[in-house]
Structures are given as C-alpha cells and as structure tokens.
Design brief:
Growth Hormone, Chain: A; 3 domains; 2 strands; about 500 residues; about 75% helix; 18 helices; two-stranded antiparallel ribbon; mainly alpha
Amino acid sequence: MCVELETPTFGRREQVATTLVAGLSVMLVMLDLTVVNVALDAINADFDVPLAGLQWVVNGYSLATAALLLTAGSLADRLGRRGVFLIGTVVFTVASVGCAFAPGVTWLIVARIVQGFGGALVMGTAVGLIAGVYEGADRRRRQSAIGTFSGMAATASAFGPLIGGVLVGVGGWRLVFVVNIPIGVVIIAGALAFVGRQRRREGSRLDLSGAALTVLALFLLNYGMLTGTDRGWNRPDVVAALVAAGLLLGALLVRQRRLGPNALLDLNLFRTPTFVGAITLGFISRLASLGLYPFLVLWVTGVIGGTPLEAGLAMLTISLPMAVVSLFSGLLARLAPARVLCCVGTVVIGAGLLGGSSVVGAADDWTAVLPFLVIMGIGSGVVMPQLVGLAVGVVPADRAGMASSLSNTFFPLGTSIGVAAYGAIMISTVAARVSDPDAVRDIVAGRVDGVRAELVARAREAFTAGLSSVLLVAGIVVLASAVAALLLIRDGDAVPSRVGDR
C-alpha cells in the first residue's frame, strides 16, 4: 500500500530558488556529457591509451547515467527528492575531484563511472523537485519554470564543446573537471539553504535486484563491445561478457514481468507503438550526434592539427542550431503532426551525415564539413523536443514518470552504443589500409603523428576513410529511422485525458 505524506506549501522564493538550483545542477551534468570529448586528445597525450580507453572515458559516464536513471526516480519517490538530489550532487562533485587528479586512465575511467552515477541521481530528481515545489500553483508558472530549466540544460548542451575547448586550451584537460568542484559546492549549499523537503511515497518496494541487473548487463555489454573492437572478438572475456549481458537482460525482463506494479520497468509500455517510436528515435538521434563526437574531435585535433578550441567550435556547429531550432518546437507542432516532424527531422539529420561522409578529407580544414554539421543540428532541433512529449503523452498519468525516465535512459544509451559501434567501424576500416597492428592502434586513437614517418600520410588517409565510413553508416541508420517514425508514431495513441497537456 502506498502512503503519501502531506504536501508542504512553498512560497515564491523557494520556487524560484529550486528552479535555479535544479537548472544549474543539470547544466553541470549535461556539460560533462560533451566537454570531455574535446579533452580526449589531451588525455591521450598524457596517458597514451588505445581507442578503447578513450571510449571508456566517454562511455563510463554515459552508461552509468543510463543504468541508474530508472532507479533514481523510484529512489527519490521513496527516500525524498531533496535528499537523493543532494546525494547525487555530492557524489558527482567528489568524483570530479577524482577525475581532476587522476594519475592514470584507469583511475579516470572509474571516477567517470562514479560521476555518472551521481549525475543520474541529479537528473532523475531535478524535474521532480521543480514539479513538487510548484504543486498546486498556477499551471503557467509551473510550465514557465520547467521552460527555464529546459533552457538551461539546452544551453549547457549547446555550448559544452566550446567551453571544453576553452578550458583545455587555457589549463589542460584536468581543468574541465576542476571547474565542477566549486560549482558543485554552490549547488549543495543552495539546495540546503533554499530547497525544501517534499512529499515522498511509502509502502512500496524498491526493485534493487532490477537495478542491479540493469547496471551489470549494460556494463558487460559495453565491455564486450569495446574490448572486442580493440583486441578481438574471439577473446574468452569478450565472449563471456556478451553472453552474460544477454542472459542478464533476459533475467531482467522476466523479473519485471513478475513484479507487476512494483517493477522498475512496466513492459506494457512497449505495447504502444508511439512510445516505442519515441524511445527508438531518441536512441538513434543521440547515436547520430553525441556518439560521433569523439571521432570528430580526434579528427580535428589528432589528424588535421586543429586546437581544442577549434574542436569545440566544430561541435558547436551541431549543438547550437539544435538549441535554436528547439526554441520553435511549439510553433512547428502547430504546423505539422509529430510523426511528420520526426520523419522530416531524421531525414535532415541523415542528409547531413551522408553529405559529411562525402566531403571529409585528411587534407581539409574542419570547415569543409561545417555546412553538413549545421544541417545535422537543424534536424536534431526538429526531432528532439518532440520525443519526450511523445513518450509521456501516450501513457497513463500514473506511468508518466516511468515513461519519462525510460525515455531519458535511452539518450545516454544511444551515446554509449554509438561510441562502441563506431569504434568497431573505425578499427576495421583503418586495419584494411594499414597492416601494422601497433600503427592501427595509434591511428584509431588519433595519434597519426606517432607512427613511422613513412606511414603518416597513409595514417591520415586511413583515419579519414574510417570517419567517412562512420558518417555513412550513421546516415543510413538515421534515414531508416525516418521510416520507423512514419510507421510507429500515431496520433491515436495519445491518452485522451492528457491530450490537452501536450
């Protein structure tokens, strides 16, 4: 039986302060999804790691975030949003200290994983904090607060690569993590001073075994993919990791079916085609954007000799148009149905990827692909705002939080799976052109100047060919998802009682 404690009443001061604290926290978490990509070449220069190590620096964070997001919402319902939010911020800040002073890449990867767990607790409670503090208030004020929060998150995503480039250029890659520390302290102090306690639910069980199965399955899957692409698919540890990941995912699905209302994940949500379409497109959209970032950055900084700032500018040409176009999502929604917008947006993204694949070159400046990066950003700006609304708008009200968490979970999963899959394509393409295994390892990690002098020109051509293949495959996958948008997204799936809120 679920018991709801009495809802406290919050004043205007607490409402505004809670919105700003929650917005600043998610800005911090979102920044660390993007700024680290720009620092990869500098991290590589310090630690001399293979591509798999660099992939784990990115994927450790995004996978940990994805693995804990569903649990974070349930945990906050039972223990209190403010408490879980504070725990997440403390974990994130302490892990940032570990990242900033990491003596080696293994330490850095572990700290990034812990940082991702903290980020999941923050992201899983931030919107709930705002919704709770505005409970019973005027609907327009609540929507305005959520709009402010969303704008802060979008700003962080848009300018994260540029900020990363500036920080790395000024003080090296460690500064990317050092700046998190004072900001995290400010957020903790603000939450303690201004964010009040909110109601929590009691009486229902937290699915700890489901959370553990999710975390283990995702990490084993990622380990198998990254290690397999770097060291070979026939290694016993790779085979064992992939088989175990499949078995754990199967066990997770069986357990969720048995738990019913106490399940971490309601599998009945997947019976709604529009819900499936929304999370599929969300996954593929991240796969085609953030999943590509590490390879674009290594191309700019490690192959054509650009600076971290130039790498940040290159990424900004994707994220800034996405943020700008997202501002007009409401107008676009009045002009065309969601299925049409999602289809058109994914076609635009696919066109940008295919165009970039055709022009990327070893001797070119990064501006050669700039128009296509902008096109990708515009398409993402059309698609992304539609997806969360779709996922929530086609489920019953008592499952909206779960639907939102699940939708958000597939975003970082798209990033991590994209990084792993594109790494496999990159390695196979480079290995087909360069026979020296040591040189292949250096090339795919962006260290083309570290190979023998007579191989440098071939190394640049091989990396560029790999990047072109990655963009081509991504473009084909995205165009295929445009068809999925038309087939899966249906206006009739909207829950009647909630249509007015969409």
